[in-house]
Every structure is written in structure tokens, then in C-alpha cells.
Amino acid sequence: MGDRPPMQDSTKRQSALDNAFALRGGFLASMFNGPSGVAGGAEPGAPGAVFGDPTTEFFGGAGRPDGPTVPAGAVPGGGSPDLDPAVAELGRVAEQTHRRTATVRAEQQRLADLLGRLALPVSAMDFESQLRSYEPRPYPDGPPGAEAEREPRWEDFVPPERTGEPDAAPTRRLLDSGYQRELAQARLAHQRALRRFRTERAAAPDPAEAAARLAHEQAEQARARAVQEYNDSLEECRRAYREAEPAAVESLLERALAAAEAATPDLPATCRAVFRPLTRTAVLDLDLPPLELVPSLEGYRLSGDGEITPVPRPGADRAADYLRLVSRLALRALQAVDAVDTDDILAGVVLNGWLREPGATCLLTVDADRDALARTRLLPAVEFVEEEAEPGVYAAAEQDEALVQLRELGAAVSPDPYARAAVRPSAVAGAAVPAVTDLSCGEFAVLVRELFTRGGLSDWSVRLRGRSGLVATGSGAPGSALPGRWVICASRRPDEVGAPEVRTLAEAVEEESAGNGLWLTTGGFTEEALDLVDTEPYRRIHLADGAGFRALAETHLGLPLSVTAP
């Protein structure tokens, strides 16, 4: 009879649990006593519902049973001595799960903050913004300004005009006895002030104060001299930059890149610049952040046996976030270069994004000409609405504006950065005068254009451009070295140019209604191609091999150009 009835025991246990929930609010109370069965009553998929309702998961989806559950008072300090130790342990694990998930969410928020800051406009770091100015500082213990050092002037003591008599003539005022008294008092005050000023200046100055004033004046002269020397050196750098001296151009570009990097000090992304006078192109090497910067987890959840289980993110989502990040870094570097090049020294920019650890892997490369640099500004963020048929973050990442702009610039981006899928760099920063085969597509196009425009062709128009060469048209004035309309094929393929390629050039000459065609290659031609141009239908086609390429560069550019890689 001493045993309590089961019904009474269950009622008292439930009452104790209800009291425990009433005593403690906060995380566990909101999670286990929420009205919707999800953490804190949150909607499914909300930030507070990463691992669902731990009571439902722990008890196999049966909800909170009549037996022991996980009230808030189970956590140490909750204040309920009647709770089972296992329940208290489960509550402690649940709160630890929540804290770990909050840490992951903080990392995700940091990444979102970085993406937002990287989309901000870049401030121009041109020469005008770097000029310094000198503002003299007054002696701290002396008078506040130069007015106290000035000798008293009579103009400061002259009696003011009488406002009541605006039409009175000056001669009538001289006969006014009141005005004469004011004038005499003003002369007396001026004489006293002048005598006092000259007496004070004639007195022997304090040696300590004189030494302090002298030191202050010398320091101010040193400041003024330093500012002037800095501005003079900056003006010399500007002169060298306008003359396209490599050291001056590289110094200016790296200043601008360092200033852009300083906008996100928590994300170091060093970028180095090499300027090639041959093609007036800057080659930038951008160090990409480590792959671990993007969180690999969605959060943590309680498993059925009460263990803390990490919830990994889909690999495509993580790769998409990393590509968002590096694309913004690349665009920021391009914007910084475009903003600082106020004199249009650059004809183009090649940017390579390198992942340095453990080995150098190129994940991104851009070959942009001068006109394309003006299209690297990011617009305000746009909310993309995902369709139900295409869920996931990666689909939205393909619509990300930074990636879209890079692809419009012809950029090559790694399809899977976490698998270290590399892309071929458009150009490698090496010698200032590299071999023709080491130039980027844009550089090669600039080089060929310079060769033929200096040779006499105008109205230069590129019809087709690729890694192996280009097709362009141009017109020469009568009497020049290249008179009439021409179709130019320039290639840098290692293979010899054969007869089929020569026939294709002849067809292009007919389609363009041109008078002549020229095939320029860094290699050579087959015997069939050489024999073909000796026949009557192809006499308008001219061929120039590697030796001819070098001769053109020597004649029109004054450069000992290497047409093959060393």
C-alpha cells in the first residue's frame, strides 16, 4: 500500500517538468517547449531550426512522451533536483550542439560580410590623390595667430562712421566737435598701443622661449621641405609613368592594388604586377585565399543516440561560395588598375588567380583589353529567385554578377576549386620582352596591330581572335608599303602552315573584296603552301615565316623579338 499509484506518479512527474520549464527560459525552453514542434517555434529551414526538435529526433519521432524528457532545468544550474541524470546530460549536449551551430553561423555571416565589402567601389589611387600639402602649425605657447605680432595700424583705431547721417559731407563732419573728440581719443589710443608694442619688442626675450621658438621654426621648415621633396619625387614618378617606364608603372599599379587590399584587412590577397612595354600590358598575379575560408558545415544536430553530428554542406554550394569570393577579388583588382591608369598607358591587363598551397594552381585567368576594364563595376546586389525545379546555391552562383562579368570578359574559371581543377594562365609574368608564343591572346593581337599599323595599314579591324592567332583586315594608303585593302592572318602555332590554310585565306580575300592577303606565322610553311602561292590564282597571297616576323618587329618596333619560346 506504500507504493504510489502509477497514475499519481506520472502526474507528479509531469508537474515537476512543467515547473522546470517555468523556472528557466532561453535556449532549451524555447527549443523543447515551442508551439510548433521546431526549435523555438521557428519555421522549418529557419536559422534556429538547423537540427530540428531534439526531443522528436532523440525519441525516434514519437514527440515528447509521458516519461522523462529534456526540460530546460536539466542543464546544470537549472534548479530541478528531481530530474534524471541522463536527461540532464542530454540537455547539456543539446546546448553544446546549439553553440557549435552558432559558431558555424558566425563563419557564414563573416563570409557574407566579405562578399558585400568586396563589391564596394574602389577608390582611385592616382597621382593627384597621393599629393601632400603643408599646413604650418603656430607656436603652441605663443599668440594664437599672426595678428598679435603685427604692429598696430591707424586704420584699426579710426572712429566708425555715424549711421544716423549717411548723407553728411566729409567737410561737415570735420567741423563736428563730437567727432573731433572721438578722433583725438583714437589718436591717443593708437599712440599708446604703438609705444607699448615697440617697448615689448625692444625688451630682451626669454632665452628658453627663444630657443623653443627657434626649434619650432626649424621643425616647421623640415616638415615643409619633406612635403616638397615627396611631391617632387611623385612628380618624377608621374613623368616616368607617362613615358611607360616599367618600374614606374609597376610601382603605381602595386600601390593601387595594396590600397584596394587594405579595404579588407581580414582577407589578405596580395597582388603583384609586371608591366610589358612590348604590348603595354600588365600581368597581375593574385594570391587567392585558402579554400578553408568557406565553411564546410551547415551546422550540427543531435543524432538518435544523443551524439553531436555535423551537417556538411553540399560540395557544389561550397564551391559556388568560393567562386563568388575569388571573382570579386579579381574584379576588385581590375577596377583598381583601371582607376589608377588615368593616362591610358595600359592597352590591356592579364590577371591570374593562384592558389599557392600546397602547390601553385591557377584557378582563374582573365585577358581583358582597355575597353573591357571599364565594364568591371559591380551593380547593387540583386535578389535572385530560384525556381523549384532548380534548387541549390550553385544554380544561383552561376547568376552571380561577379562571375557573369568575368565570363563576359572571356575569363576561364576553375569548374571545381576544391578538386584543384586548374585552368591554363592566359600569360605568365616573366621577361619584359617575352617570346611571341608566351603572349596572351590580347597581347598577341596588340603586337600584330602595332606591327601593321606602323607599317602603313589603317582601319584595323579584328574579325577573329583565339589562342593560336587572329584574322584581321586593314587598308593602306596608295604609295605605302602595303597599299590597298588587306586580309591578315597571324598565327603562332608550332605546326607548319599548309596549303589548305592558304586556300582559306584566299577565300577570305575574295569575301572581303580585298586586294591582297598576308599570312604571318611564328613557324614556317609546307612545301605545298610555298608552291601554291607561285601559281596565278594565289599570287595575291603573301607569306611571312618566323624570320619575317622578326624582321617586321625590328623594322617597325625596334625590338629584337623572339618568335619562339626559349
Straight-line N-to-C gap: 103 Å
Helix content: 40-55%
Strand order of the largest sheet: 1-2-5-6-7
Using DSSP, what is the number of strands? 12
Describe the main β-sheet briefly: 5 strands, mixed
Shape: flat
Strand coverage percent: 5-15%
Q: Can you give the mean pLDDT?
A: 77
Taken in chain order, the helices and strands follow as HHHHHHHHHEEEEHEEHHHEHEEEHEHEH
- Alpha-beta classification: alpha/beta
Q: Total number of helical segments?
A: 17
Rg, nearest Å: 40 Å
Unreliable segments (pLDDT under 50, ≥5 consecutive)?
1-79, 143-148, 379-397
Biased composition (Basic and acidic residues): 147-156
Organism: Kitasatospora nipponensis
Region (Disordered): 33-85, 133-170
Domain Restriction endonuclease type IV Mrr: 439-552
Provide structural commentary.
- This protein has 566 residues and is α/β, with parallel strands linked by helices.
- It is 42% helix and 14% strand.
- The chain contains 17 helices and twelve strands.
- The protein has helices spanning 6-23, 27-32, 54-58, 85-118, 127-130, 170-174, 177-202, 207-242, 246-261, 315-340, 370-373, 393-397, 401-408, 441-454, 499-511, 527-532, 546-557; strands at 271-276, 281-287, 297-302, 308-312, 348-355, 361-369, 412-413, 457-466, 469-476, 484-491, 516-521, 541-544.
- It has a five-stranded mixed sheet, with helices on both faces.
- Strand 1 (271-276) and strand 2 form a beta hairpin.
- It is flat, with a radius of gyration of 40 Å.
- It starts with 5 loop residues before the first helix and ends in a 9-residue tail after the last helix.
- 28% of the residues are buried.
- It holds the Pfam family Mrr_cat.
- This is Restriction endonuclease type IV Mrr domain-containing protein.
